Amino acid sequence: MKLYSTIALFTLFCCFGCSTSVDTFSERHDGEYAAYLFTYFTGNGPGAEAVHYAVSTDGYTFYALNGDEPILDSKEISSTGGVRDPHILRSPDDESFRMVVTDMVSANGWDSNRAMVLLKSDNLMDWTSSVVNIQDRFDGQDSLLRVWAPQTIYDPTEEKYMVYWSMKHGQQGADIIYYAYANDDFTDLATKPQQLLETPDGGAAIDGDIVFHDGTYHLFFKTEDRGKGLKIATSNSLTGPYTVGDKFIQQTTFPVEGSGVFQLIDSDDYILMYDMYTKGEYQFTRSSDLENFTVIDEDVRMNFHPRHGTVIPITPTELDRLLSRYGRPDDLISQVRNPAIKRNNIRLDTQSGRLQLPVLPGTDRTAFDPQFSDWAGLGLAPSGPQDFREGPVTYTVAMEGQEPRRYDVTVDKVSNPVLPGYYADPDVLYSQNTGKYYLYPTSDGFNGWSGTYFKAFSSPDLVTWSDEGVILDLEKDVSWANRNAWAPCILEAEVDGAWKYFYYFTAEQKIGVATSDSPTGPFVDSGQPLIDGPPSGINRGQEIDPEVFTDPQSGKTYFYWGNGYLATAEMNDDYTSLKENTLLVITPDDTFREGVTVFFRDGTYYFLWSENDTRDPSYRVRYATASTPLGPLTIPEDNLVIQLDEDKEIYGTGHNSVLQIPDRDEWYLVYHRFTYPNGIGMGREAGFHREVAIDQLEFDADGSIRPVTPTHEGIGPVEMSR
Q1: Which of these, 11, 184, 1, 156, lies nearest to 78 by C-alpha position?
Q2: How far is CA 75 from the centre of its chain?
Q3: CB–CB of 190/227 below 8 Å?
Q4: Hey, how many other C-beta atoms are within 10 angstroms of the C-beta on 363?
Q5: Are strands 301-302 and 61-64 parallel, antiparallel or unpaired?
Q6: pLDDT of 294-348, one tens digit each?
Q7: Marked catalytic residue, from 224, 594, 611, 616
Q8: How confident is the model over 227-273, as pLDDT tens digits?
Q9: Cα 28–chain centre separation
Q10: Looking at the predicted structure, is the pLDDT value of residue 402 above 70?
Q11: How many whole angstroms separate alpha carbon 576 and alpha carbon 572?
């Protein structure tokens, strides 16, 4: 066993001009439980397979402790050097805690581990640990391949802790959930493993999580090898037998695992959370009966990316203790709740102590309250609304034994990014029908660009945007594809005296078309792809990134697409099919990657495209000109339109569309970039954590495009008089 040393508690207090003590959280909150502790690991690979802590005061907004670094050394407590799937439990007498983890390093393979780790603590900080190798500990385990996701629950009948987990024996065997009782010291398993759950078809079951509710034990588990979803089995006895329910309970079509259920403090409702591991996100749902679950993702905030974890309630004193050990001023000061703040774009320079809070255009800064999180208020001054118009307001956080930490906090009104959250590949429209602007982006933030739906946004001025909701969902609305919803474009056309909208989109590396009577949908898919293969002679790239353009001189409409090549064809009058024998390949040069957009100005046709990989910080836009919509293309010597600006920390600027304000020679470039400021630190993942920006597009007297300077400030309101 290993014993981790105790660090003396310290008291948070604020210093504003001088050091004065501040009530602790426990002194300001009544009730047995007032907060939550989330234990989790962060991923596969060195340093990620370890126990992490996060805390919350409401069960919805979680803050990573210790800078999201491990709170235990995996190499000290495990036999493999890594631990996963932490499950934490409070003892029935409230005097101690138990935690169990998988003893495993994923780099060794999914069939490489035979052990779990049992841990015990009196204070949530100092843990004793014991490795239990099932193969060594019990007879008959020669064919054992893996020991996964242990959890523990107190059995009041036996007055013992029951540990349950999944094991697989032999390559042809299924993962089965077993249980055994721990010894009194919680250092070993005292009984031989026995099967806990029998599935009706004998199929695999992993990631069990038992909740006692209304006199019944509810065992949540993952089916693993069929359906790959979450189900619930119920029993009147902790050790079964369990009856498996028929329905899957996850509220997503993404694969899920690692379900965890916790009850909200002072509420009869439960939170069911689970790891959407291919999406790279957690999903949170709420239920009053553990049968029906409602997604609450819009209400949940986390400044970390958890994998397979569990949540328990904690007392105010326990929260104070955790904050005193693991809380850091740099983390506390950046936790804000005011909805006017663009949370993804908060920037903290830890060296200078400068905190930039970007806010929505139109925000009143005369008496603005960032609404620092409850625990941040423990040692923070000043408090309440402040006047940010004349520059930074100095806040101070002080902790006993440390020098007071001062932060210069600015509140800046910025337009970029123009949409909240992760979006990419924006196509922009000014609607002659409604007199409003519309944006049609890729829904981003999904691992490997695995999004499945499209949204639309509307604006009266290109600055204030309203979310119009999902306008096309591949899984519900499209029969021929259900993944990789990318890079749409839109056409507004008057057909037989009525306005119609034609929405072209990428799905499964094919291109489809859907129609609607409204720019905000809903859109109805045609039932088949418009483009489902490469042009003749093309053996590279993908069939993605549609663009549609109506020539103002001829009235003809042209369709463009391609990745690694640029193809075009004339459209029929139905706008849902291509004219035969009109297909051409007009690839500009070897800088062409994807994302073409076409527009017409002063007798010249402009073709813009993206160069490099969207995961590359140097992803950028180039252009060519032509005298017809079909080329030939002339490439200027200096043809860069927009590229990264390292001084401003703006990277990955590309895949744009272009907007002309009707009846004006006024133009705007709408593009995506890495999320700021964290994108550049994400590595390749920045390529699917992108955001939409708008900056002005200008021309020289000879028609050349002036290089666009990417900005955080963006543009001011652009209104149309009708």
Answers
A1: 1
A2: 29
A3: no
A4: 16
A5: parallel
A6: 999 888 988 899 999 999 999 988 988 898 888 888 887 888 889 999 999 999 9
A7: 594
A8: 679 999 999 999 999 999 999 999 988 889 999 999 999 999 999 99
A9: 33
A10: no
A11: 7
Residue 649: pLDDT over 90:
yes
Q: What CA–CA distance (Å, rounded) separates 137 from 192?
A: 9
Q: What angle do CA 535, 538, 539 make, to 5 degrees?
A: 130
Handedness of CA 421, 424, 427, 428 (dihedral sign): positive
Query: Can you tell me the distance from the alpha carbon of 543 to that of 195, in angstroms, rounded to the nearest whole number?
Result: 50
Domains of the chain: 35-327 (2.115.10.20), 347-413 (2.60.40.2340), 423-697 (2.115.10.20)
- Note if 425 is an active site residue: yes
Tell me the CA end-to-end span of the chain in Å, nearest whole number. 77
Q: What is the pTM for the complete model shown? A: 0.83
Mean pLDDT, the chain, integer: 92
- Write the CB contacts of 383 (distance below 8 Å, at least 6 apart in sequence): 372, 377
For the cut 50, the answer to whether the pLDDT of residue 607 exceeds it is yes
Among residues 103, 425, 427, 691, the one annotated as catalytic is 425
Phi, psi at residue 331, to the nearest 5°? -80, -40
The pLDDT of residue 599 is above 70: yes
**Residue 704: how many CB atoms within 10 A of its CB?**
15
User: Nearest-CA neighbor of 405 among 11, 10, 15, 12?
Assistant: 15
